[in-house]
Structure formats: C-alpha cells, structure tokens
Amino acid sequence: MMKINRVFLIVLDSVGIGGADDAKLFGDDDPNTLKTIAASKNFHTPNLARLGLFNIDGVNFYRQEKNPRGAFGRLCEASAGKDTTIGHWEIAGIISERPLPTYPEGFPTEVIAALEKSFGRKILCNKPYSGTQAIRDFGRAHEASGDLIVYTSADSVLQIAAHEKIVPVEELYDFCRQARKIMQGVHGVGRIIARPFVGQFPNYERTPRRHDFSLKPPTETILDALSKKNLATIGVGKIFDIFAGQGISRSLGVNENNSDGMKKTLRLAEENFRGLCFVNLVDFDMKFGHRRDVDGYAQAMTIFDSELGEFLSKLRADDLLMITADHGCDPAARGTDHTRENVPLLVYGEKIQAGVDLGTRKTFADIAATLAEIFSVTLQTHGESFLSQIMT
User: Fold this and answer.
1) What structural domains and CATH numbers belong to the chain?
2) What is the pLDDT of residue 154?
C-alpha cells in the first residue's frame, strides 16, 4: 500500500444531499440541498460529477458518471444535531449524543444579567433573528446608546453585533471572550460569534471581520491525534474557530470568501508537509443557504467546481483529497435554519481505486477513522475506516 503524505479535507459547508432518516425529528420535511440547487440554471459542476457526486446512493436526480474518477459514498450523521460545530466534531471523530443548547425564546434572564454585568453595557434584541435584519432593526438604537445587539438563531449560537465606529473590533472580540467564559455547562452554546458591521442606516453591512469563539471539543479529535505525532494540522477558513484552536498546528485564518479559501488551499498544495489540511468553505451556508438564495448557491457551487479543476491538477502522487459537508441548508426549505441531511463523501488520489462505491455509512466519523489509519495514529472513535476499500 502506497504511503499517503498529505490529505486535503474540504468541507462544503451545508451541501447536504438529501434528508436523513430522522429529519422530521429535527423539524425538516424532505430537505435536499443538492437537488434544489442542481435544478438551477446556474448549476454546472463537471469536476464533481467526474469524481462521482451523482453516483452516490440516493442522488437520483442528475446524470450519473459512467466511469467516475473517485470513490464516493453517503455519510449519515450519528450526532444529535444539524449545526456546524457538531458536524465538524463528528467529521473529526466525536459523536455528540446530546444536542448543544438552543434558545428559541431568547436567552434567559440570568444569562442576560451575567452578560450585561460582564460587558458593562446593556443588551438589545435577545431573540432568534436574521443577522442582517438584526442590525437593520437595532442598529440605530445601538449607535445612539452603545448597547450591544445580542441575538441567536435556530443553531446553538450567541451572536454579538456592533458597529465598528461604536465598538472597535478588538473590543468586540473581548466581549465575545467574556461571553464564552459565561456560556459554559448547561448554557454551553457551540459558538459565540462576533458580528462587526459598518455603514449608515439603512445601509449597514457586515464586515469580513467576523470571528467565532467555539466551545472546546469534549474529547480528543483526529487533530489532537495527528498533532501528538508532530504531523501537520493546517486549518483553512473557520476550522481554527470551530475547534477553538485545539489540535491545530497552523491556521491560515477566516476566508474572505470561498475563492479566497481555495486560493489558500492551492498555495498549500505547493508546500511540503506531512499531515492534514482541513478546509471549510462557508459561503454556501452563510451567504446562500440561510438566505434561501437558490441561484446564488448554485452559482457558488459552479465557481467552486471550476477552482476544484485547478486544484486537482496540483495534487501529487502521494496526496489524497476528501470532499464532504457538515449538514444541509436547503435554500428551498421553510425558514432560515439548517436542514438535517446526509452528506457526500468524495475521495480522490492517484493511488485511489476509481469508481469504488462506499455506500451509505453510519457516521461522519468514518473520515476520522480513515485518517487515523492513513497516518498510523491512535484515535478513540466509533467511526470505521474505509481505507482498505479505496486503496489500489
């Protein structure tokens, strides 16, 4: 078996491929992110098709590739959740039996009191809210008073929005760090998110200086296992934030957009390292899924597919590429929430057996188990490695 030196793991944030068996328990009827966007005139993904995206179990709405170049499969989520943190933790080997807390009625009085005392400022909003609408509805009051806009969503998040001329970005980050210390235990939300914005009412705009302050993973992940063996664990995009920096040896920071993330990944393909490059491309979710923009989502996939073509040409003989997702966010679904979906798995490399159907697998954690076997590290996980099925 040929030694693999580098693995590039790209998470297409929210690109689900059809409702999970338990989707109704999560408030979803029959979501299918990929099917929705594939019907758009803006959708054109020949490189993903050639790798086997439309050969995956249950993807029966698009033309299959006769001779796919990659291995392909469908991953089911074993964790109790449908959010970014839980999804990435499971990819990295952790199955979360309990969902992270959410606040459909806003945060309770005792939480707000603790936050206001820590901040030395009052809080506005305190409801589940669209981020863009929150700054539109509360921005003027915030500018007049200096009070902070705090809101949540259907996800396990506490978001703090502030105008950069009222609260400098570094001060906003400090408020988020204070909130992170408070939001532990029973109120341990997955992420505290800084949401700086600029402009004048009604034309406020959120800036790229968003920053996530995540709950630390409760147990060891594949990132920790690789780091212990002095193997590279490079994060691109939100990866450092999602894992609260735990197990990350190097981070290239939050992406300006998906294309920026792919440019960073292309540069890494020119470097010499042994280990894992873990990439999150969040635009699919943040800019198009939650905003229920079908054509925009489809166009973003088309752009990624073109960039993927360039990336494939940079891979070396001892490289492995994995492409997956962390949950769904069907832009045709009701509301603005994530959707409980299965996710794709595409695997490609010079020594990978083309056309292998990995079927429907029980957990995202099979990725972590496979990475552990590739790099000969020890990881406690319920995932099962598929390495022997794909290697020539």
Assistant:
1) 6-98+217-390 (3.40.720.10), 109-214 (3.30.70.1250)
2) 81
